[in-house]
Amino acid sequence: MVYEVRQVDISARLLGVAPVLLVEDVRAAAAHYREKLGFEYESFFGKPANFCIIHRDGCSIMLCQTNDKQSIIPHYRVVDRLWNAYFWVDNVQQLYSEMQSRGATIDYGITNTPYGIQEFGIQDLDGYDIGFGQIMD
């Protein structure tokens, strides 16, 4: 199959991305991310509250409460060792120490991967794996 490469005038840029995670309890999930991972949030949306955007260092995750627990499926249950979100960081060692001291549930400790990344992973209240990695020099 041959793909055609087109020249496109790109005048609009993507400014960020926010994975959306289905959670059992949006208030508990947001509090967990604040206390254990250092994220912040301003408010909850919906009546009753069912949505929150958490953020840290210009990165965001959207948390959406669901009444269907069966719809909360961490990716690693479908594909072995796959995260639901992955963040690139500038000091993986320091972030790892911070999250350990906050009492985050460490899924796996700092690892030097064969693909040139030093990374670690945590698991949140709903079982999602969140990865944090730094390109090794």
Quick summary of this structure?
The chain has 137 residues and is α/β, with parallel strands linked by helices. The protein has 2 helices and 8 strands; from the N terminus they run βαββββαβββ. The protein has a single domain, classed as 2,3-Dihydroxybiphenyl 1,2-Dioxygenase, domain 1, CATH 3.10.180.10.
Helix content range = 10-25%
Number of strands: 8
What is the average per-residue confidence, as pLDDT, rounded to a whole number?
94
CATH class: Alpha Beta
Give the helix/strand class.
alpha/beta
Number of domains: 1
In terms of per-residue confidence, which ranges show pLDDT below 50 for 5 or more consecutive residues? none
Strand order of the largest sheet: 1-4-3-2
Approximate shape: globular
InterPro entries: Glyas_Bleomycin-R_OHBP_Dase, Glyas_Fos-R_dOase_dom, VOC_core
Pfam families: Glyoxalase
Organism: Poriferisphaera corsica
Protein name: Glyoxalase-like domain protein
Question: What do you see in this structure?
Answer:
The strands form 2 sheets. The protein has a 4-stranded mixed sheet with strand order 1-4-3-2, covered by helices on one side. The chain has a 4-stranded mixed sheet with strand order 5-8-7-6, with helices on one face. About 15% of the residues lie in helices and about 35% in strands. The protein starts with 19 loop residues before the first strand and ends with a strand. It has a single domain (about 20-135), classed as 2,3-Dihydroxybiphenyl 1,2-Dioxygenase, domain 1 (Roll). The chain is α/β, with parallel strands linked by helices. It has 2 helices and 8 strands. A hairpin with a 4-residue loop joins strand 6 and strand 7. The chain is globular, with a radius of gyration of 17 Å. The mean pLDDT is about 95.
